[in-house]
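User: For my dataset I need records formatted as: sequence, then structure tokens, nothing else. Please produce one.
Assistant:
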Amino acid sequence: MVHTFEPTDCGGAGAVHQNEPTDGPAFFNYAEYEQIGVAIVEAVSAVSDVDPCQWETRLYDVVDPDALRQIVRTGGPDVQVSFRFGGYRVSVFGDGEITVTEAPVRGSEQATE
């Protein structure tokens, strides 16, 4: 089963798809044409159940979205880039997959409620 997330008021594309939920990492797929940064924010927001507009930490505070896009798009299907964002470990793969795994929260990564 694949879940499609609706666009957010923050300008999200709503094109990230979550694979069947499991007890482990949440797996998402993003469309080739989609902005990877938008897909990451939507994926983490879906897992955390926090609106993307409510994150104190912005994606560009932890990773350069343009550099990430370049690495993932040109590195082939086996490339993997991982980083922490909003209390989660995010891994982006060259084959269009994003995994989101809960990680211990650091003070500056918490979302506002």
